[in-house]
Amino acid sequence: MRESRHAIGVDIGGTKINIGLIDFRGHILRDITVPTMAKERRVMAQTIDGIRALLSESEAEADNAIPCGIGVGSAGQIDFETGTVISATDLLPEYAGTPIRAILEQCFGMPVYVDNDVNVLALSELYLSKEERLRDFICVALGTGVGGGVVTDGHLVRGVQGIGGEIGHISVDFRGPVCMCGGIGCLELYTSGTSIARRMGEKRGRLEACVEWSCREVVEQWLRGDTAATEVMEETIEALSAGLAGLIHTFNPAKIVIGGGVADAGEPLFTRLRLETYKRTMPAYCDATRIEPPLFGTRSGMIGAAIQVFRYGGAKQAENELRLKGRLIPWH
User: How far apart are CA 135 and CA 133, in angstroms?
Assistant: First the structure.
């Protein structure tokens, strides 16, 4: 591997793909966003075109930031060892089985590391936080779907198959509707951007396309006091708080990070969410767990994806500079 302090980070979501050139401290040199085009089965084509555009832009600017690898965080269940998509919901049709690592290594001739998109979000919190003792926390991403990443004692919890952390498919209603995963009353059915858009459309008597902009529209109407939007968002907050309370009781985390497009609602959402979650949590747990947005907002997944290159790859010069008593130097 070429010695470099830079890597490409790719965050593949159900709606869009964020691609950035990142240095070893998590600084973004340049980045672009392209649509996922999942329905057109163009996820990998869009990813490749986006990386090529980023590299061309970097070369044109002559900034000498040559990447030493590519890190990818992708929606779906990912085989970390092979960099292949094990399974994905219908939000990403025909995506299961995609050998992301093999495709990108063949295209770009550099090492590629692939993990679930919320696991890499967790990496950005673990290695770039100013909190040196942050070793137990949970990340939840509310986007087109709902994903999760669990960190205990400084390590990602992967489980026996390597696909642990599917928080979006915890049941919060045992008599609820059937989820596309086959489960009953899954958290994703109530808290994803797709769900928020769909339920608002139903309340307004029209079935709208479940796209991110319509979710933002619901949030905007909620903040303006719209009755239907308030009903949708209150149901979302109650379902999410029930799920978070269960996670707090199970893992006793120092914090829960809520990311994804829905979290862009900001402090009004977080204020209500904290109140409802702590109402459902035993008092002994409440003071120990904070509920916060990601350190770097919607770019956290892209940054965390790039961190894989420095953590798992052979960029020893960068990694040596990152290490301090067994930990990476916090963001500063």
Answer: 6
